[in-house]
Specification:
The structure holds two protein chains of two kinds. In chain A, helix 3 runs parallel beside helix 5. By secondary structure, chain A is of the alpha/beta class. The relative contact order of chain A is 0.23. Mean pLDDT of chain A is 91; it is low at 1-6. The longest helix of chain A is centred in the last third of the chain and has 14 residues, at 170-183. Chain A contains seven helices and nine strands, in the order βββαββαβαααβαβαβ. Helices cover 29% and strands 27% of the residues of chain A. In chain A, strands 6-7-8-3-9 form a five-stranded parallel β-sheet. A four-stranded antiparallel β-sheet of chain A has the order 2-1-4-5, covered by helices on one side. Chain B is mainly alpha-helical. Chain B has one domain. The two termini of chain B are 28 Å apart. Classes of the chains: A alpha/beta, B mainly alpha. The A-B interface holds A 1-2, 56, 58, 60, 77-78, 81-82, 84, 86, 88, 90-97, 101, 105-106, 108-112, 134, 150, 154 and B 1-4, 8-9, 12-13, 15-16, 19-20, 23-24, 86-88, 90-91, 93-97, 100, 228-229.
Chain lengths: 210, 229
């Protein structure tokens, strides 16, 4: 069940994460609401991707808590996941499937039907000539465009983007800007980045010290 | 907007597995190469006349399942490891329910195993002169045994997917689960070879279904924890 984005809130309080003896995150707090962009900035190794993985529910924090709620009703992970869209450098799609086949697969998994995946790929700058080619033949920039398409094809109320313009040329970056602008009113966005252009999107910023 | 049904998600993952395998043929090549090589080697060395008549039902049954077992293990163990190696597991975790992933990959392993049996068993019977009195009984044992193997292999493959040294770990974890199953399917195959009565294979079938059923129930409860954590 995908929820009305206007009432969906993610709160994280005093979130810390250790990997063995190394502390990666220390006491980070914040809130995500539709219509707002939270930028997570910091040097390499400061925990930006770790924080996004914790917010996505893919990683447990060592301390602190993350709650996903509609009004004041706390949601379980199984209720939460369908409302999430994620694009991250450590995430890959299927190289042996074409761009369209990848989107069709994830659309079927998410119960999305009737969407024009080809138009979404075109919106993100992937030419029609490439739509039926296997992802394994793509450059990193082309794969990034398909990854972004996968993240937004179900119109998620919460979108976590880890370095969204990575490997993209200026045209690709501008397309990401337009995508963020289009989705912003109904979506809570988190962008982990070191790119000053992306940092300017934020209504609020969390600076991780590293 | 409603989420897909569990069945639809499982079939989507099965479709993805089949499409990927037909294009890459990693598991198919591993299974095919192992099965054909061992079958030819055994048939060449032993053939239809290499065993004493009284030894044939048991030894031929055991040899058949040894070929199937090791061929299947060569191809089935990587069904989850390949997702971690290719970094596609994260996207799958976010998009699909854990049980859909389990059922989809289990169905894929089952398809692989049944295809292996359909090809290898008739060849084996022809090359080894393995006369089976109850073909229906053999089919039942093959189907149930294949399903139980698929369930066990899939579950163990899921557990070891994120561990280092996963290949060795698969063998260590799978052995105590697969060994009783192997004993049961060999017994069932021997019973089908020795008797025309379908009832002759029932004791072995009960054991196979029980072992597979227990593993399936365990997998349904444990897999979501293993997959998400």
């Amino acid at each position: 069940m995908v929820l009305n984005a206007r009432v969906l809130v993610v709160r994280f309080r005093d979130v810390s994460k250790r990997f063995g003896g190394q502390k990666v995150l220390a006491g980070v707090s914040g809130e995500l609401r539709p219509g707002r962009v939270l930028v997570v900035a910091g040097p390499n190794g400061s925990g930006k991707s770790t924080l996004l993985n914790i917010l996505a529910g893919l990683l447990r924090p060592s301390r602190g808590e993350v709650t996903y709620a509609e009004d004041e009703r706390v949601l379980s992970a199984e209720e939460w996941f369908p409302n999430l869209g994620v694009a991250a450098p450590d995430m890959a799609l299927y190289d042996e499937l074409s761009a369209l086949e990848n989107l069709q697969l994830f659309a079927r998994l998410r119960g999305v039907s009737g969407h024009d995946h080809a138009s979404l790929l075109l919106e993100l700058g992937l030419a029609a000539a490439h739509h039926h080619k296997a992802l394994g033949a793509f450059s990193s920039g082309m794969k990034q465009r398909v990854k972004l398409a996968q993240a937004v094809l179900h119109r998620p109320p919460v979108l976590l983007l880890d370095e969204p313009s990575a490997n993209l040329d200026e045209d690709g970056h501008q397309r990401v800007v337009r995508l963020v602008t289009r989705m912003r009113p109904a979506t809570a966005l988190v962008v982990a980045t070191n790119d000053p252009r992306e940092m300017a999107w934020g209504d609020a910023t969390i600076e991780l010290a590293g | 907007m409603q989420r897909s049904s569990l069945l639809a998600e499982s079939l989507a993952i099965l479709g993805k597995e089949v499409a990927s395998e037909l294009r890459r043929r990693v598991a198919l090549n591993a299974i095919g190469l192992f099965a054909v090589t061992t079958l030819v080697a055994v048939a060449y060395q032993i053939g239809p006349y290499g065993l004493a008549e009284q030894d044939r039902p048991f030894l031929l049954s055991a040899l058949l399942w040894i070929i199937l077992f090791f061929a299947a293990t060569a191809g089935l163990a990587r069904v989850f490891v390949k997702e971690e190696d290719a970094h596609t597991a994260k996207a799958l975790r976010l998009a699909a329910r854990p049980l859909a992933v389990l059922y989809g990959k289990l169905l894929f392993n089952l398809v692989l195993l049944l295809a292996l049996e359909v090809i290898i068993v008739p060849l084996y019977c022809a090359l080894m002169g393995f006369a089976v009195r109850s073909v229906a009984g053999l089919i039942l044992v093959m189907a149930a045994g294949g399903a139980a193997f698929a369930v066990t292999s899939t579950f163990v493959a899921a557990i070891i997917a994120r561990a280092s040294g996963s290949n060795a770990l698969f063998a260590i974890l799978a052995l105590p689960l697969l060994l009783p199953l192997l004993v049961a399917v060999i017994a069932g195959t021997r019973a089908a070879a020795g008797s025309m009565e379908l009832a002759a294979v029932l004791p072995a079938l009960r054991a196979i279904v029980s072992l597979g059923g227990v593993t399936m129930v365990t997998a349904v409860f444990l897999f979501p924890v293993v997959w998400r954590d």
